[in-house]
């Protein structure tokens, strides 16, 4: 666990981030910091702007202002493919499985950006469904299988910062459990993970910190330790 | 209690808004009508008639593209079917009154539309466009080969004849008001269709076809009916055009014509009632103006440049962009 | 009594499509040259020119023509290439009693079943094309014929005329094949022609179709294997495009050639200065017919269609285009035609030095005699 | 001699051969179109114009600089391809993600401009280009005389077609292309320079058309309008093959060449329409074309 | 009424090019029940739904609705019979207002939708019923909002309202709570409960909380076949179900539900 020593290294710093889709102003000055090896979640209600935050990090929104530093490097003027090359892996909200490609091609599609990604065997061991269906057209998979595929292909690339958007959506509870274990393992390997989740029961035990978003702003930051004491605040924001 | 009152309030609000919109529409229609009635006193009536014929054609086409989401690439076939049928009848049966010729021409196009529709309607998207194109090419081939169409030369000297056996249409003014009446009939029909229960279903199909199916609509039938109505109006435009110009030619059946009506509609604005009319006016005018002037041999590149500019800068078409502008600056 | 004190001439032709090069923008130049040479005014009245692209469509042409005569007081329309355009426009001219002078069209039906008292067909038509070339080729021993026809009215007319001439001269048409218009690949048809074993392979088509067919015939060694290629309608611009290398030896009939005599050379030098190319027979015809028209207006002091047409019919045409040309009552301008052969590269001394004139075909031998005419204007008399 | 439907077998075999040769042109052209449609969802109505540019370029380069056929075979497609890339960069890119109809309209407009401008410069009669000397003459196959050049056309076209198919369906670059067209934003998020990829793809599709143009230069009349009519037929070929299917475009191209060739023997007038008849029938039986996905 | 089972499948099979997605499924849904179909990913749940609503054609087997064989019927015809589904991905008409969305659904019963000559005002009769339905899903104030502008959860609610407008006898819901925040989940649970009054519901759901709260009967599908069937308690006690599907979650959820 050599990475533990570097844990204080700052992986991501966002300050004063605003994002727009055409005319609509979606993010209003996001401030956040993530250290290397940390797992943080973005919580909030539907439409709070969590997915948009991830997309803004990837430079996939219409327009953005402010500052996003990845590994100490300013990325506001970077094209998305440069950002990915910095070691950022993004698993999008609606899976983004390619129908023109079969499962295997989908899986091996994202270029490896760093060494140390998972091997195919490891991935197939985790998601046996994918192995079984490896020659099917990507979008012929069931909803849950597509979700697995979307997650799996990111793990292959060796990215060391993962942006994961609703990865448990539509997955059977056993798989969700398994995913939880995977995330813990990744964290142990020193990967930085930003998790957008509706399933708070899934996220809570994994995360080091939680950011709560509302109306395009971060309204609360809760560390894992404070979770119990701040439960009522959280309930208010999330309507649990 | 409270919910009940807000419910009716909102409902009434909606109805009020509908009424207001309707009034706006009526005022617009009235202004247009007056302009159209006066137009031949300042402009050359035959030219105006040409515009009206193409406008009707484009309006018919837009019923499909703009309101049903079907891109037909074979509408020239219907224009030509109306055009040749009417031309042939009026040239060869001197007893026939003009309106009979037009009615039969329109009916022919309607039948052809039914045939096309039955074959094409089950195909989606680009395949639909291509199958209509293919069918139209076959119709073109028939028109080239058939003895009654005059091949390349077309049908010439079709008599304008007498409307109801009474009104002499060789007078350009009489002809104009007849064409205007036909155009308005077609235009108002489409306006009515779009707002009708049927129009609502078309709109639904356009936006989300699987959902419409799951709501119990037999979408193929709806699309087919829309297609047939559109073909029929296109045929009407062709029939009237033949009477106006006393000529039916292969031009009407060529795929360029199918392309042209797409351009007119897009240029004016799809999915708006007035758009195709404006688009047709613009294109017909432009072609005429360009072919006249010193730029005679530059018509194609200039038309091309206009398409490029349209697509690059005002994609919603002239009317669409104006609507967007108003929406943005009114609210 | 010149209307509006202006003689207004419309030039209507294909400016951008298939027939652009044989008339097109340069035809307008020829017309303007004529007006300038005439002095720009006739009996004190202005001469004005308007022009438009007919886009090869009877539709576009007739709406332009209609507007010109009904709304803009155009007195005469010249140019007119595609036969369908000419027929459509002449109908409108007849209805409004204006005059049309057709220089580019080939169909002989224009002064036959489609004749009107309101137009003149000036330069050539399918009848002499067939007559000149076909009879010459049969006489040289081409007995059996394979005709490759463009599948539209013009091609059919030409095919009909050729068949008649071949049979009259003792030859035999053993096969005719109609190809779609336009066609870009002729290999299949050339192969059929080779398989037919005919002595002569005749091309009853025009423009790019003809040049494509000739190129392909060349490639497949049609002439090497002993068959003769006869192109029935070939313009100077087409031969120029093919080049002497490919086109050498082809016989064709033309109404005029720029390098016939000093007069033609002088005019075509001026034309070349204006346009950069040598004139086709259509260009020369447009110049000549515009001159003739203006002369007639001057002589009669009127721009009334019938008056002018009558005057033109009464005046024989003697200029660089034609000698003793006569406009008949059916509107046909009858003048001498020429049987030409494309020079070999060795003979050709420049890129436009392409024809040698083999024979002059006297006008009344070349054109359809009035006795065979189906024109109402003739039969009524 | 044995006959089939009144046509000697020898003639028929000759016609079949020619059908394949013409089919090779269709294959090349529809391949480019299929690449552009399948991968970029652009309905490239400028394809005919690009084919023409390839041929015209060959002729002009020879006239101006004496550049020979072999050099032109590489140079012309590259030049036209670069032109295509410029078009993509300055125009097409800006309407990415919009309805098909806009790309159709835009490319149609571009084609009109290119053809119109060149027509005003070079006329329509066609420019002269002589066959390279190596290809002069031909061989006697017994049933027909096959010019060497036509034999070369088949070989060249098939090689290029196969290479393209292989690249797109079987290589990693090909999978990037296929994926990039579905969701280019996401692909970019994976670290792939999608805009560049798209430009290159469009350029490549255009190159294929230009390559066909170079092949056509010695045998067809080269003029600014030579591509205008072939376009719609090539579209039909792509649709029959199944839009977006690369192999489908090639096979159907060859097939349609043969079908058209045979029609030229039995019913020549119909040879321009036959492909559309085939298209209607095929789409009735197989809604997404012969080789289209999602039957 | 005679038959207690509204929907019945007999040996239903669906193969995709050699891959058997649904294998000999015999499903019986009792009138008035909320019946859940659960199972691991790729078990064939969505495929069963697609077969029931004819978006896919069964390879073998029969589907009976109220004793009538509907295997060969077209999708639209089945919807008219009263079998209506909502989609896994939200399905609305994006450029219509919420009210219009519902009106289109109501209209399909009127049988005059082909009348293209009728004025649009003739539709206003339906507005009242539309407002009732909108109110029932809490969307009253959004009646005149274009649907694209609605938040995801509201779109789902609207979709459900549209589905209810069809007066279905049998309502098919494919993951109605997917992608929703817990607040919305609760709202949907209430909604489904309300909607289920007087009709039968068959739903696919991965949220065990929802299943345990709502469902009268649960069928577990695995690898295309029925693994087991029973009420939530029975099913979640089955060790096989725990192994292939629920994992440790079952106990958690149960505790919560209680
Ligand atoms: N492409 C877009 N164009 C315009 N507005 C958008 C777009 N995508 C999202 N929005 C709007 O931005 C806001 C934030 O959306 P975002 O997807 O970030 O929410 P979220 O917190 O991820 O919620 P969800 O649970 O719905 O995914 C919402 O109001 C949404 O309507
Ligand atoms: N059109 C198709 N072609 C080929 N295979 C398919 C097709 N549709 C589904 N499948 C396969 O059938 C199996 C069942 O899929 P289905 O969508 O029914 O699963 P599901 O139970 O709904 O799963 P989930 O909970 O993940 O949505 C999957 O393995 C899937 O890959
Ligand atoms: Mg989100
Ligand atoms: Mg599913």
TrEMBL record, chain A:
Keyword terms, alphabetized: Amino-acid transport, ATP-binding, Nucleotide-binding, Transport
GO molecular function: ATP binding; ATP hydrolysis activity; branched-chain amino acid transmembrane transporter activity
Sequence ranges assigned to domain ABC transporter in this UniProt record: 12-240
Listed PROSITE patterns: ABC_TRANSPORTER_1, ABC_TRANSPORTER_2
Highest taxon above the source species: Bacteria
GO terms for biological process, alphabetical: L-amino acid transport
Classification via InterPro entries: AAA+_ATPase, ABC_transporter-like_ATP-bd, ABC_transporter-like_CS, BCAA_Transport_ATP-bd_LivF, P-loop_NTPase
UniProt similarity note: Belongs to the ABC transporter superfamily.
Name recorded for this polypeptide: Amino acid/amide ABC transporter ATP-binding protein 2, HAAT family
The organism of origin for this protein: Marinobacter daqiaonensis
Lineage: Bacteria, Pseudomonadati, Pseudomonadota, Gammaproteobacteria, Pseudomonadales
From TrEMBL, chain B:
GO molecular function: branched-chain amino acid transmembrane transporter activity
Transmembrane segments: 27-47, 54-80, 100-119, 126-148, 173-190, 224-249, 261-286
Subcellular location: Cell inner membrane
Entry annotated with the keyword Transmembrane: yes
Membrane topology field: Multi-pass membrane protein
CDD domains according to UniProt: TM_PBP1_LivM_like
GO cellular component: plasma membrane
Family annotation (InterPro entries): ABC_transp_permease, LivM-like
Keyword set, alphabetical order: Cell membrane, Membrane, Transmembrane, Transmembrane helix
Pfam family, one: BPD_transp_2
Family matches, as PANTHER family: ABC TRANSPORTER ATP-BINDING PROTEIN, HIGH-AFFINITY BRANCHED-CHAIN AMINO ACID TRANSPORT SYSTEM PERMEASE
Record-given protein name: Amino acid/amide ABC transporter membrane protein 2, HAAT family
Organism whose genome encodes this protein: Marinobacter daqiaonensis
UniProtKB/TrEMBL annotation, chain D:
InterPro entries xrefs: ABC_transp_permease, BCAA_transport_permease
Keyword Transport listed: yes
Any one GO MF annotation of this record: transmembrane transporter activity
One GO term of the biological process aspect: amino acid transport
Tagged with keyword Membrane: yes
Top-level lineage group: Bacteria
CDD domains: TM_PBP1_LivH_like (cd06582)
GO cellular component terms listed in the entry, alphabetical order: plasma membrane
Coiled coil: none
Pfam family for this entry, one: BPD_transp_2
Bilayer topology term: Multi-pass membrane protein
Keyword annotations from UniProtKB, A to Z: Amino-acid transport, Cell membrane, Membrane, Transmembrane, Transmembrane helix, Transport
Regions that span the bilayer: 20-40, 49-67, 73-92, 104-129, 149-168, 196-220, 226-259, 266-285
Cellular compartment(s): Cell inner membrane
Family classification: Belongs to the binding-protein-dependent transport system permease family. LivHM subfamily.
PANTHER family: ABC TRANSPORTER ATP-BINDING PROTEIN (PTHR11795:SF442), BRANCHED-CHAIN AMINO ACID TRANSPORT SYSTEM PERMEASE PROTEIN LIVH (PTHR11795)
Protein name: Amino acid/amide ABC transporter membrane protein 1, HAAT family
Organism: Marinobacter daqiaonensis
Native organism taxonomy: Bacteria, Pseudomonadati, Pseudomonadota, Gammaproteobacteria, Pseudomonadales
Automatic annotation (TrEMBL), chain E:
Keywords carried by this UniProt record: ATP-binding, Nucleotide-binding, Transport
CDD domains membership: ABC_Mj1267_LivG_branched
MF terms in GO: ATP binding; ATP hydrolysis activity
Keyword match tRNA-binding: no
InterPro entries: AAA+_ATPase (IPR003593), ABC_AA/LPS_Transport (IPR051120), ABC_transporter-like_ATP-bd (IPR003439), BCA_ABC_TP_C (IPR032823), P-loop_NTPase (IPR027417)
Residue span, ABC transporter domain: 7-248
GO CC terms in record: plasma membrane
UniProt cross-references to PROSITE patterns, sorted A to Z: ABC_TRANSPORTER_2
Protein name (Swiss-Prot/TrEMBL): Amino acid/amide ABC transporter ATP-binding protein 1, HAAT family
Annotated SUPFAM superfamilies: P-loop containing nucleoside triphosphate hydrolases
């Amino acid at each position: 666990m050599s990475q533990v020593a570097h844990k204080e290294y700052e992986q991501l710093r966002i300050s004063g981030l605003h994002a727009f889709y055409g005319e609509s102003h979606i993010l209003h000055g996001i401030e956040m910091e993530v250290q290397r090896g940390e797992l943080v979640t973005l919580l909030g209600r539907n439409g709070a702007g969590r997915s948009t935050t991830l997309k803004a990090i990837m430079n996939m929104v219409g327009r953005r202002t402010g500052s996003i530093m990845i590994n100490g490097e300013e990325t506001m003027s970077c094209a998305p493919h440069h950002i990915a090359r910095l070691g950022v892996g993004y698993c999008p909200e609606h899976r983004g499985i390619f129908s023109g490609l079969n499962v295997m091609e989908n899986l091996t599609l994202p270029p490896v950006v760093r060494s140390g990604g998972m091997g195919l065997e490891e991935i197939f061991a985790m998601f046996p469904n994918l192995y079984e269906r490896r020659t099917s057209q990507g979008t012929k998979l069931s909803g849950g299988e597509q979700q697995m595929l979307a997650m799996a292909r990111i793990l292959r690339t060796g990215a060391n910062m993962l942006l994961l958007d609703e990865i448990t959506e539509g997955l059977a509870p056993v798989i969700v459990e398994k995913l939880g274990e995977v995330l813990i393992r990744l964290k142990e390997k020193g990967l930085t993970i930003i998790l957008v989740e509706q399933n708070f029961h899934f996220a809570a035990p994994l995360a080091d910190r939680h950011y709560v978003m509302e109306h395009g702003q971060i309204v609360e930051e809760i560390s894992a330790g404070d979770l119990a004491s701040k439960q009522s605040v959280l309930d208010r924001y999330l309507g649990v | 209690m409270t919910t009940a009152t807000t419910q009716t309030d909102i409902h009434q609000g909606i109805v009020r808004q509908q009424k207001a919109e309707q009034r706006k529409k009526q005022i617009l229609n009235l202004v247009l009508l007056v302009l159209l009635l006066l137009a031949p006193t300042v402009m050359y009536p035959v030219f105006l008639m040409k515009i009206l014929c193409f406008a009707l054609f484009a309006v018919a086409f837009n019923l499909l593209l703009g309101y049903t989401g079907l891109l037909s690439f074979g509408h020239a076939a219907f224009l030509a079917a109306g055009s040749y049928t009417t031309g042939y009848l009026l040239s060869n049966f001197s007893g026939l009154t003009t309106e009979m010729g037009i009615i039969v021409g329109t009916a022919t196009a309607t039948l052809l539309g039914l045939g096309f529709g039955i074959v094409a309607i089950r195909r989606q998207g680009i395949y639909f466009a291509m199958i209509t194109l293919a069918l139209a090419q076959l119709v073109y081939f028939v028109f080239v080969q058939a003895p009654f169409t005059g091949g390349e030369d077309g049908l010439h000297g079709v008599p304008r004849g007498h409307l109801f056996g009474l009104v002499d249409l060789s007078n350009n003014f009489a002809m104009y008001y007849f064409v205007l009446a036909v155009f308005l009939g077609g235009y108002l029909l489409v306006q009515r269709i779009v707002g009708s229960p049927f129009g609502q279903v078309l709109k639904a199909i356009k936006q989300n076809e699987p959902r419409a199916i799951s709501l119990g609509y037999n979408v193929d039938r709806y699309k087919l009916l829309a297609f047939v109505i559109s073909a029929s109006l296109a045929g009407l435009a062709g029939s009237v055009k033949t009477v106006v110009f006393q000529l039916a030619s292969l031009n009407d059946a060529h795929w360029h014509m199918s392309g042209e009506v797409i351009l007119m509609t897009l240029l004016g604005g799809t999915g708006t009632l007035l758009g195709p009319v404006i688009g047709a006016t613009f294109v017909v005018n432009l072609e005429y103006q360009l072919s006249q002037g010193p730029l005679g041999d530059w018509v194609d590149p200039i038309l091309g440049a206009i398409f490029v500019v349209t697509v690059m800068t005002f994609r919603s078409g002239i009317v669409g962009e104006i609507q967007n502008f108003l929406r943005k600056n009114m609210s | 009594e010149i209307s509006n004190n202006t003689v207004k001439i419309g030039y209507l032709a294909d400016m951008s499509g298939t027939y652009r090069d044989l008339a097109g923008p340069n035809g307008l130049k020829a017309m303007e040259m004529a007006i300038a040479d005439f002095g720009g005014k006739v009996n004190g009245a202005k001469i004005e020119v308007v022009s438009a692209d007919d886009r090869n469509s009877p539709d576009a042409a007739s709406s332009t023509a209609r507007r010109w005569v009904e709304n803009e007081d155009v007195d005469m329309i010249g140019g007119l290439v595609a036969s369908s355009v000419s027929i459509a426009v002449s109908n409108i001219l007849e209805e409004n009693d204006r005059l049309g002078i057709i220089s580019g069209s080939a169909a002989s039906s224009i002064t036959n079943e489609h004749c009107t008292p309101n137009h003149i067909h000036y330069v050539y038509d399918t009848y002499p094309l067939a007559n000149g070339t076909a009879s010459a080729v049969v006489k040289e021993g081409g007995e059996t014929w394979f005709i490759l026809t463009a599948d539209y009215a013009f091609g059919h007319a030409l095919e009909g005329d050729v068949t008649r001439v071949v049979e009259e001269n003792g030859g035999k048409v053993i096969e005719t094949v109609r190809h779609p218009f336009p066609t870009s690949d002729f290999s299949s048809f050339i192969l059929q022609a080779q398989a037919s074993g005919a002595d002569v392979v005749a091309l009853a088509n025009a423009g790019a179709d003809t040049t494509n067919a000739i190129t392909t015939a060349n490639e497949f060694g049609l002439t090497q294997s002993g068959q003769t290629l006869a192109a029935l309608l070939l313009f100077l611009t087409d031969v120029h495009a093919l080049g002497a290398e490919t086109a050498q030896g082809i016989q064709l009939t033309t109404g005029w050639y720029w390098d016939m005599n000093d007069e033609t050379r002088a005019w075509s030098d001026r034309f070349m200065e204006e346009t950069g190319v040598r004139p086709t027979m259509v260009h020369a015809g447009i110049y000549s017919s515009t001159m003739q028209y203006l002369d007639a207006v001057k002589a009669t002091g009127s721009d009334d269609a019938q008056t002018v047409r009558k005057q033109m019919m009464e005046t024989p045409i003697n200029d660089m285009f034609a000698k003793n040309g006569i406009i008949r009552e059916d509107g046909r301008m009858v003048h001498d035609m020429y049987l030409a052969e494309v020079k070999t590269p060795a003979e050709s001394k420049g890129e436009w030095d392409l024809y040698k004139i083999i024979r002059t075909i006297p006008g009344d031998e070349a054109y359809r005699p009035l006795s065979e005419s189906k024109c109402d204007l003739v039969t009524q008399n | 001699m044995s006959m089939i439907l009144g046509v000697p077998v020898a003639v028929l075999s000759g016609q079949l051969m020619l059908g394949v040769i013409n089919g090779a042109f269709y294959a090349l052209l529809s391949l480019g179109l299929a690449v552009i449609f399948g991968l970029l969802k652009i309905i490239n109505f400028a394809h005919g114009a690009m084919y023409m540019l390839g041929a015209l370029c060959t002729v002009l380069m020879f006239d101006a600089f004496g550049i020979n056929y072999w050099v032109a075979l590489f140079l012309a497609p590259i030049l036209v391809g670069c032109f295509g890339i410029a078009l993509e960069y300055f125009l097409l890119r800006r309407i990415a993600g919009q309805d098909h109809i806009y790309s159709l309209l835009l490319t149609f407009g571009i084609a009109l401009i290119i053809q119109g401008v060149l027509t005003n410069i070079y006329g329509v009669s066609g420019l002269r280009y002589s066959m390279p000397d190596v290809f002069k003459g031909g061989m006697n196959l017994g049933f027909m005389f096959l010019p060497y050049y036509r034999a070369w056309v088949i070989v060249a076209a098939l090689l290029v077609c196969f290479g393209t198919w292989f690249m797109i369906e079987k290589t990693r670059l090909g999978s990037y292309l296929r994926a990039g067209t579905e969701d280019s934003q996401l692909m970019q998020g994976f670290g792939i320079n999608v805009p560049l990829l798209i430009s290159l793809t469009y350029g490549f599709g255009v190159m294929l058309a230009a390559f066909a143009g170079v092949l056509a230069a010695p045998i067809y009349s080269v003029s600014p309008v030579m591509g205008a009519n072939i376009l719609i037929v090539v579209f039909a070929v792509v649709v029959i093959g199944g839009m977006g299917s690369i192999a489908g475009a090639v096979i159907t191209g060859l097939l349609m060449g043969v079908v058209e060739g045979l029609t030229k023997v039995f019913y020549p007038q119909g040879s321009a329409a036959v492909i559309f008849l085939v298209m209607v029938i095929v789409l009735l039986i197989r809604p997404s074309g012969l080789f289209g996905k999602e039957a | 009424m005679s038959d207690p089972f509204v929907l019945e499948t007999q040996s239903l099979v669906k193969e995709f090019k050699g891959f058997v997605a649904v294998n000999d499924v015999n499903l019986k849904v009792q009138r008035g029940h909320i019946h859940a179909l659960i199972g691991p990913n790729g078990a064939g749940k969505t495929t069963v739904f697609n077969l029931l609503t004819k978006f896919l054609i069964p390879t073998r087997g029969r589907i009976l609705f109220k004793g009538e064989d509907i295997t060969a019927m077209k999708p639209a015809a089945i919807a008219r019979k009263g079998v209506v589904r909502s989609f896994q991905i939200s399905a609305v008409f994006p450029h219509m207002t919420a009210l219009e969305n519902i009106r289109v659904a109501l209209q399909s019963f009127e049988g005059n939708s082909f009348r293209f000559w009728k004025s649009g005002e003739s539709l206003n009769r339906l507005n009242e019923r539309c407002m009732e339905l909108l109110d029932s899903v809490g969307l009253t104030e959004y009646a005149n909002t274009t649907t694209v502008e609605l938040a995801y959860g509201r779109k789902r609610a609207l979709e459900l309202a549209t589905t209810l407008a069809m007066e279905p006898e049998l309502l098919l819901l494919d993951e109605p709570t997917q992608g929703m925040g817990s607040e919305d989940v609760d709202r949907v649970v209430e909604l489904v409960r309300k909607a289920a009054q007087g009709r039968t519901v068959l739903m696919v759901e991965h949220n065990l909380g929802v299943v345990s709260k709502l469902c009268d009967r649960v069928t577990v599908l695995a690898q295309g076949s029925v693994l087991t069937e029973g009420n939530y308690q029975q099913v979640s006690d089955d060790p096989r179900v725990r192994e292939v599907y629920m994992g440790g979650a079952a106990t958690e959820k149960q505790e919560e539900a209680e």
